[in-house]
Amino acid sequence: MNTISRIPAANATGAHRLAAALQRHGVKEIFGQSIPSALFLAAPDYGIRQIGYRTENAGAAMADAFARISGKVAVVTAQNGPAATLLVPGLAEALKASIPVVAIVQDVSRRFTDKNAFQELDHFALFQGVAKWVRRVADAARIDDYVDMAFTAAATGRAGPAVLLVPLDVLDEHPGFDPAAPHRNATLGTFPLDRVSADPSRIAEAADLLAASARPIVIAGGGIHSSQAWRELAALQDLGLPVATTVMGKGATDETHPLSVGIAGYFMAPGARASHLRDLVTDADVVFLVGNRTNQNGTDSWSLYPKDARYIHLDIDGNEIGRNFEALRLAGDAKLTLTALVAALKTGDLSGLAARRPQLEEKIAAARAAHAEDLRRLVDMDAKPIRPERLMADLDLVLAPETITVADASYSSIWIANGLTARKAGQRFLTPRGLAGLGWGLPFALGAKVARPDAPVVCLTGDGGFGHVWGELETARRMKLPVVVIVLNNQILGYQKHAELSLFGGFTDVCHFEPVDHAAIARATGCAGVRIENPADFLPALKAALASDAVTVLDVVTDERAHPPITSFEGREALDY
C-alpha cells in the first residue's frame, strides 16, 4: 500500500515521505531527540513513536539493543554536527557486532552547503569508518529510493549501520505526487533480509569431516543470533556434537543441555564454568566455527584454539572465514546452512559420535560439578563487601526464560556470561562486544525494553560504566521503561586497575573514584533506588524490583578485589591484595 496517500499530495512534505517510507518498513519506534523536528511532527500520523534519549551516544546504543532483541532494523536520528559525532561510538559497536541500525542525520540546507553553516560538518568523512553505507538524499522525490537503499544496506549480507543524510530543506520540500512514478511497496525492515546457503559440495565435505572426527567441537558466535538459527544449532548438537559459545554467542544454545560446554574464550581460569572443559577446545581435531569472528577475547589471544586441528568456518561474511584459522569455507546464512548440514550428517555414519556421546556427557556433567565446588572453595559467598559471584548466583535463581539480561562492557559482561545460565536458546543476553565500550549497559536495557515491553529486563553495570549514562534514568522514567539496574559499586575501574596491577605491579591514580550513592541519584530522577551492603539483602531487593513497575537501581557495594576468572590474571600475585 502506498502509505503516503493518507496525506494529500499537495500537502505532503519530504518529512511525510520519510515517515511513510519508515512505516512501510515496519518502523514503529524511532530513537531520537528533537531533530529532525519535521520528521517527528509527521511521525505520529504514521503510527511511529519517538523514544527520546538524553544523549545521542546512548540513543545509538538503545537502537542497537532494540535491533538485537526485535529482529528488526532500528532507526536512530540526530542533528548535524556535534549531535552526529555522538552517534559514532554506537554505530561503531553496531558495525563490529553486525547489528542493523539506520541513522537518519539532518544536514544543513542544500543552499548552505560548504558555506560554514551552523554546525556544518563533513558527515561522509565522519561516518565512513563506522557504517556500511553513507548517502545524502538531495531530492524529496527520491526519499523512498534512499530509505530503501539504507534498509537494504543495513539488513543484507553482514548486517551493520547505514547512514542517511537528509538536508533540512529536503524535509520541508513539497515534492508533489507523480502517479506515473513507480511505487515502492517492499517491506525491508527485518533481518536477515536475504538468506543464502553455502556451497552444497562444501556442506557435504563438512559433514564428512564432522562425522569422521574423534574430538569435534562447535564454537558458536553472535552470528547464530543474527540468523535466528537456534533450532538448527540445537539439531546439530543433538547429533552428538559438543557446543561452546563466545560471549556474544551466549544463549545460542541451551546451557543445560548435556553437550553444552559454556563460554570458550579468555575467562577459563579456575572459577570459570568452562575451566574444566578447556581441553575440549585445545585437544579438538575438528573445530566448527559458526558466526564466530575468532577475535582476541573469544580465542584467548588466539592461544586457545588448537594449531593442528581441521577447521570448518560458517559465516555470512566470507572475509571472516580463514581470517585467523585456515578453514573449509562455508560462506552463507547460518540457519539455511546448518539445516543443510544436519540433513547431510543424517545421511552418513554417525556411529562414532554416538559411541563417544555417553563419555562426553559424563565429562561435561563432572566439569559442572567441579565448577560448583570451585566456587565454594574460592569465593566466600557471604563476604562483605559483597562478591559479584554471590549476586550472579542470586540473579540466576530468579531468571525466567523470558528475562533479558544486559551488561555493560568490562567485568560486567564477564560476570553475566560466566555466572548466569541460558536455560533456553535465544537472544536474551546482550553485551557490547563489538568494541566493548563503557556506558552501554543502561541504554542497552532501555532499547531491549522498547523491543519487548512485556519481558523483564535486568542490567548489570559497574559504577564506572554507569557514570557515563546516569542521565538516561530520566529517559527510562519518562518513557515508562521499568528496568532493573544493578550497579557493582566498588569505587574503581576494576578491569583497568587489575590489568595494570597484573602487567605493571602498580596502577594509575584515575582507577579510583570518590564514593557515590547511585541509589540517591536514582531517587533524584524519580526512580527507585536501594543501596545494598549486606549480601542477604540483595535477593529480596531484586525480587521486589522485578515485581515493581518502577525503574529501580540496586546500588550494591562490592569487593574491589573481586575479578572474573580471566586466564591472563591467573597466578598474578599483585592481584592478591
Your description of this structure?
It contains 22 helices and 18 strands. It has 577 residues and is an alpha/beta fold. It has three domains: 170 residues, Thiamin diphosphate (ThDP)-binding fold, Pyr/PP domains (Rossmann fold, 3-Layer(aba) Sandwich); 168 residues, TPP-binding domain (Rossmann fold); 197 residues, Rossmann fold, CATH 3.40.50.970. Strands 9-8-7-10-11-12 form a six-stranded parallel sheet, with helices on one face. The protein has a six-stranded parallel sheet with strand order 14-13-15-16-18-17, sandwiched between helices. Helix 7 links the parallel strand 5 and strand 6. Helix 3 runs parallel beside helix 5 and helix 3 packs across helix 17. It is globular and about 75 Å long. 54% of the residues are buried.
Provide a compact summary of the structure:
By secondary structure, the protein is of the alpha/beta class. The protein has helices at residues 14-24, 37-42, 56-70, 82-85, 88-97, 123-127, 143-155, 168-172, 200-212, 223-227, 230-237, 278-282, 334-346, 351-378, 388-398, 411-419, 441-451, 463-466, 472-478, 494-504, 518-524, 538-547; strands spanning 29-31, 49-51, 74-79, 101-107, 133-136, 162-167, 216-220, 243-245, 260-263, 286-290, 310-315, 328-331, 404-407, 429-430, 457-462, 484-489, 528-532, 552-557.
Strand element count = 18
Strand pairing plus helix content: what structural class?
alpha/beta
| Percentage of residues in helical conformation | 25-40%
Mean pLDDT: 95
What is the CATH topology of the largest domain? Answer: Rossmann fold
CATH architecture descriptor text of the largest domain: 3-Layer(aba) Sandwich
Stretches where pLDDT is under 50 for at least 5 consecutive residues are 1-5
- Return the CATH class of the largest domain: Alpha Beta
Q: What is the distance, rounded to the nearest whole angstrom, between the alpha carbons of the first and last residues?
A: 67 Å
Number of domains: 3
Q: Looking at the structure, what is the overall shape? A: globular
